[in-house]
């Protein structure tokens, strides 16, 4: 604090201070300058640099904790990044604002774990605010640190705004190069940090999951070129020898059924029919890895990247011990979804145990597809031909030793009604709707257009509502959906039914089923409704439109490109006998193309062999 009393009698305050070396050193190391008195305020312009905050004494409110802000930041990070709370981060940001928005170079590295903790917790705005304090242009900064800071600024910007920042591809490439630099320095810990950050940038869901296009579909070779050409990317894709099979603790009795381990993955409901099919010939053990956050989900995550990289570098440490124990004594393993749990499972399955892995849709656009050691996978199952085209293009010759199969989802005939109830000719159905990628706004636009001509049309939305902890774009989409739901043309005509396993009453009540998604691999809910006689109206799924996905799966006249085309198809079939003819055709197409009996038998043969 500088007061007017500190000035020399024979010279102005500024002159006296400029001649006092100790005072100058104190000013150079100060976080802020508090002015007490008019003489001090008059001298301030000559005393400080433009970046040093100047605070008149009457504005001191809120500054009582500023003196220890960097010390507390250090303590918070040292205690554990996982324990950093949003409340603390808000306090930190307020204090930094008081300090002029400047974080000194010595404290800059501490901001990364804070931004990471907020990003992992889904507090994307806070993560963005913290990352925005990172200074990638600091003089003399190491290229690795510069890339790390730029990467976190770009990642948090993308998560918070749902908009790819300028030069995203350039930043991702810079982070990949930095990972190679640290790998060359034998700094594996830093390499894992940077590799995980690069994967988070390249495979961010805002780029691939919910938009109308994906560079992984449109130009995978160009988009992934820097990653594929890097040493770290090559290592994380490299095959490694399997561990020798361990003798089971309990030998199976002669004639006992084989023991199959099933890893249902992050979305376990899809594996239920496969488990039922395998149970007809084997003892099935379900391993629910999704209970662990490090093994659940499709987003980039540090721990699995760490284990995979060390394995590729020849580290002799065990894979995940819990997973390894589950594999003991297995005759075969079936893994659903190419997620974090799939990576851990593939690393743990011992030599001689056949492994079958199924890929759906979003996991085909995830980082784990590229980290899995495909030399260890005996059978790769894709749920549709378009997904086969996508995955084989993404993986190329890495699948040389893996047999690739297209097997449609297993239908459950017991869930499907054979008759329709009164009113079905004016009811639309959408199965699974509470996600941006399902695009229920498109369905509301179809309903609104139909009701302009005939207000008796209604829409049933079957499935879970929008998640409350979603990324920003999903939350904004949900708000737009609620607003659209209240508009005059559809108000009161939409029945939101919620999630249920008993879909039969809703299938029986519906004459038409909509698939309005931006991306689908198969559209199981729609196919089940078609098998129950609902007339399908399938949007030409935009993300997979370059693969001609919808039209390769279904008859071309089922597929529409616009809301207007959807309305035209529905109106042309909304009366008898046209509806009944289209309903019979829908049942026949499903029976011919997606017979559940064939799918069940195929899974039994792939996983268990022909015995």
TrEMBL record:
Gene3D superfamilies referenced in this protein's UniProt entry, alphabetically: Glycogen Phosphorylase B
Pfam families: Glyco_trans_1_4
Key word Transferase present: yes
GO MF term set: transferase activity
Keywords associated with the record: Transferase
Listed name of the protein: Glycosyltransferase
Organism of provenance: Ornithinimicrobium pratense
């Amino acid at each position: 604090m500088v007061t007017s009393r500190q000035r020399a009698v024979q010279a102005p305050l500024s002159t006296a201070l400029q001649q006092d070396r100790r005072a100058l050193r104190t000013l150079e190391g100060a976080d802020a300058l508090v002015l007490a008195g008019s003489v001090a305020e008059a001298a301030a312009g000559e005393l400080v640099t433009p970046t040093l905050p100047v605070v008149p004494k009457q504005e001191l409110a809120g500054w009582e904790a500023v003196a220890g802000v960097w010390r507390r930041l250090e303590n918070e990070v040292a205690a554990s990044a996982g324990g950093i709370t949003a409340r603390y981060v808000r306090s930190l940001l307020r204090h930094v604002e008081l300090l002029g928005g400047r974080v000194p170079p010595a404290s800059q590295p501490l901001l990364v774990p804070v931004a990471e903790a907020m990003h992992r917790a889904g507090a994307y705005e806070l993560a963005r605010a913290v990352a925005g304090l990172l200074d990638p242009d600091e003089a003399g900064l190491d290229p690795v640190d510069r890339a790390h800071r730029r990467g976190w600024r770009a990642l948090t910007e993308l998560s918070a705004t749902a908009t790819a920042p300028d030069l995203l591809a350039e930043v991702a490439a810079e982070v990949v190069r930095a990972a190679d630099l640290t790998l060359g320095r034998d700094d594996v810990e830093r390499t894992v940090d940077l590799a995980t950050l690069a994967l988070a940038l390249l495979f961010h869901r805002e780029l691939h999951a919910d938009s109308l296009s994906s560079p992984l579909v449109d130009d995978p070779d160009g988009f992934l070129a820097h990653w594929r050409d890097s040493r770290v990317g090559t290592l994380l894709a490299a095959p490694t020898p399997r561990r020798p099979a361990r003798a089971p603790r309990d030998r199976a009795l002669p004639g006992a059924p084989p023991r199959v381990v099933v890893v249902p993955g992050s979305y376990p409901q899809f594996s239920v029919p496969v488990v039922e099919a395998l149970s007809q010939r084997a003892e099935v053990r379900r391993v629910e890895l999704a209970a662990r956050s490090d093994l659940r989900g499709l987003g980039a995550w540090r721990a699995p990247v760490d284990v995979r990289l060390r394995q590729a570098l020849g580290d002799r440490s065990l894979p995940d011990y819990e997973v390894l124990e589950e594999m003991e004594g297995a005759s075969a393993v079936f893994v659903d979804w190419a997620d974090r749990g799939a990576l851990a499972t593939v690393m743990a399955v011992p030599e001689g145990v056949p492994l079958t892995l199924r890929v759906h849709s979003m996991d085909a656009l995830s980082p784990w597809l590229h980290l899995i050691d495909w030399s260890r996978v005996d059978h790769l199952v894709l749920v549709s031909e378009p997904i086969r085209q996508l995955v084989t293009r993404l993986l190329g010759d890495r699948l040389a030793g893996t047999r690739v199969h297209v097997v449609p989802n297993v239908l459950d005939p017991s869930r499907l009604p054979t008759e329709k109830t009164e009113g079905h000719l004016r009811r639309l159905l959408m199965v699974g709707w509470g996600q941006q990628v399902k695009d229920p706004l498109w369905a509301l636009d179809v309903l609104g257009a139909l009701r302009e001509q005939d207000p008796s049309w209604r829409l049933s939305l079957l499935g879970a509502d929008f998640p409350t902890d979603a990324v920003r774009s999903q939350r904004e989409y949900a708000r737009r959906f609620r607003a659209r739901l209240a508009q005059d043309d559809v108000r009161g005509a939409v029945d939101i039914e919620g999630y249920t396993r008993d879909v039969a009453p809703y299938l029986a009540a519906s004459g038409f089923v909509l698939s309005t998604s931006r991306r689908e691999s198969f559209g199981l809910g729609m196919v089940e409704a078609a098998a129950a006689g609902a007339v399908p109206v399938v949007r030409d799924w935009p993300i997979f439109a370059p693969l001609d996905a919808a039209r390769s799966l279904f008859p071309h006249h089922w597929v529409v490109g616009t809301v207007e085309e959807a309305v035209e198809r529905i109106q042309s079939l909304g009366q008898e006998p046209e509806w009944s003819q289209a309903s019979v055709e829908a049942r026949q197409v499903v029976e011919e193309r997606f017979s559940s009996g064939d799918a069940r038998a195929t899974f039994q043969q792939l996983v268990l062999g022909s015995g």
